[in-house]
Structure formats: structure tokens, C-alpha cells
Amino acid sequence: MPNCNLSAQSLSEWFATPQGGYVLAREQRYFDLTVSDIFGYNALQLGLPEHDFLRGNRMPLRFNAGNQAGNAVRLCCAELPFDTASLDLVLIPHVLEFAEHPHQILREVERVLMPEGSLIISGFNPRSLWGMRRVLGRKQCYPWSGHFIALPRIKDWLALLGFEVVGGRFAAYAPPFRQTRWLERFAFMEAAGDRWWAVSGGVYFLHAIKRVPGMRLIKPQWNKGLVSK
Known about the structure:
single chain; about 230 residues; alpha/beta; seven-stranded mixed β-sheet; disordered C terminus
């Protein structure tokens, strides 16, 4: 039996497999919970137009953009055609590990986000059983063809761009089995993983806020000086 599903020509097609569906269910749950408490006017999801990770959000404008067919806006993720400081929320589900220049995408997201705007990232964790599967197995198909980026490196990039990480978690602790019955048999590892080896989940999520240093005006005490005279 081959090590990967060669019929999956995209990440969305892989999400339709039992292995991908296991990850997708946990990602949808995290996004639904996290975006429900983020407020503003404009929310963007980059990539994966078949999956609405913004459905739990209540902003007036929520849309999907990317270079695949099915997106509301077709674009290059490294060159976003939006005004500076025009968006309140940006989701990046598994975009960075399949991008040629992931840091440039983050720079563009920082540019278009409003001050105090939210960025939420999901990515495959190279320091996990899923990352080990990528190293040891075939890399011709999704998601193993991506370049899994370690969480500390993502945090370093965000810090350099002025983001503050305010939340996140790991998920998908079961081994990357292809069959549903084996994934269900190892479902106990979800609760155990959160408690005993939290940083070893197959996927990670990060919620970061764009911080803009404020200016503090120092006013001369002219009135006080006049009164003293």
C-alpha cells in the first residue's frame, strides 16, 4: 500500500480523506471557537475556499482570497491588493508551509491589518509524529509535499513584525493513520496529548495581535509656572 494518497492533488482534496478529515475536524473546532470573539468590520481567509473557517465570526464583511479557483478574490498571497490597515482579522490556514516566500506573506498580512488586528495561523508541526511521517515517507503528495515550519520560527517572524502572540494550542495527537478505524482507536491520545506532551500535536494554531507602539505626548507645565509667579 502506498504511503500517501496520490489522488489528492490539493490540500482540500486531502481534507476529504479520512486522514485529512481527522485534522479538519479539529481545525474547524478551533477556528469556530476563536473567531467568535473577534470583532471588527473586515475579515479575510487566505486559501482553502472550500472550508469556511470564518463561519463563527460576526463581522459584516467576511471573504476568502487566494490563488486557487473558488476564491472570492484571486490573488498572490505575497502581494495582497488591499489598503494598508484595512482588515481586522486575517486567517492563514496552512498557507505558509506551501509558499515559496512565507515570511513575505506575513509581511503583507502585517501591512493590511489594522492596529490591534488579529492574525490566526494553522500549520503542520514538524516536531510531531506527523512531522516524522513527512521526513520518513514519500513527499510527492499533500500534505507531505509542504515545508513544515517549526513553531519557534513562526514566533520569531511574528515578533520581528511587531505581533504579540496571545493564544494558540496544538491538536491531532494520534499517529497519521490513513484508515478511520485506526484513527478512532487512538482517539484517547487527544486528551492524553494535551496533558502529557502538549507540544507534540500534529498541527498547531497561533493567535497573534498586531501591536503598534503609541506616542506619549509630554506637555510643558506652562500654566503651573504662570500661576507660581
